[in-house]
Specification:
Helices cover 15% and strands 47% of the residues. It has 150 residues and is mainly beta. The chain folds into 2 domains: 85 residues, SH3 Domains (SH3 type barrels, Roll), CATH 2.30.30; 58 residues, SH3 Domains (SH3 type barrels). The strands form 4 sheets. It has a 5-stranded antiparallel β-sheet. It has a 5-stranded antiparallel β-sheet with strand order 13-12-11-8-14, with no helix packed on it. It has a two-stranded antiparallel sheet with strand order 2-3. Strand 11 and strand 12 form a beta hairpin. The protein is elongated and about 50 Å long. InterPro entries: Cell_Wall_Dynamics_Protein, DUF1058, SH3-like_bac-type. Pfam families: SH3_3, SH3_4. This is SH3b domain-containing protein.
Length: 150
């Protein structure tokens, strides 16, 4: 009986660790700074891979201190400082082209087209549709499957 408790405790700790990993592994953030550097490692001594603009959505893969290892919609990974990110309020178009509609349905009036890689702000969700706002202020609905991000 004396061995049962430590084993149960170890299993409990392992389950908690896996749950916490899953919680932040599915976390999304958006760039809040005007521009942020994506680096090859967790620190300013690492090379800048590319720059990201405000609103760019990223999936958190890992954390090391104040640095987040992140993945973008094209599955590229790198590191950004946590202070340059915030709650995910943006999405990126992952389809070649997405229709922007006045209503959240396929038959809704077509307001325009959004190209792959364009960043939009998420305003609301209704079923499989996401209400978004483009940088210029235009609002509309896009099928959620055509977007990526939190």
């Amino acid at each position: 009986m004396s061995f049962a408790f430590p084993i149960v405790l170890r299993i409990f700790v392992a389950v908690l660790a896996l749950q916490s990993f899953g919680a932040w592994a599915q976390q999304y953030v958006s760039i809040t700074a005007r521009e942020a550097n994506m680096r090859s490692g967790p620190g300013t001594q690492h090379a800048v891979q590319w720059s990201l603009s405000r609103g760019y959505p990223l999936q958190v893969v890992a954390r090391r201190g104040e640095w987040l290892q992140v993945r973008d919609f094209e599955r590229d990974t790198g590191w950004v400082h946590r202070s340059l990110t915030g709650k995910a309020t943006h999405k990126v178009v992952r389809a070649s082209v997405a229709n922007l509609r006045a209503q959240p349905r396929t038959g809704g009036k077509l307001l325009g087209k959004i190209e792959r890689g364009e960043i939009v702000q998420r305003l609301a969700r209704r079923g499989d549709w996401v209400q978004v706002q483009r940088e210029g202020g235009q609002r509309g609905w896009v099928a959620g499957r055509l977007l990526w991000g939190g």
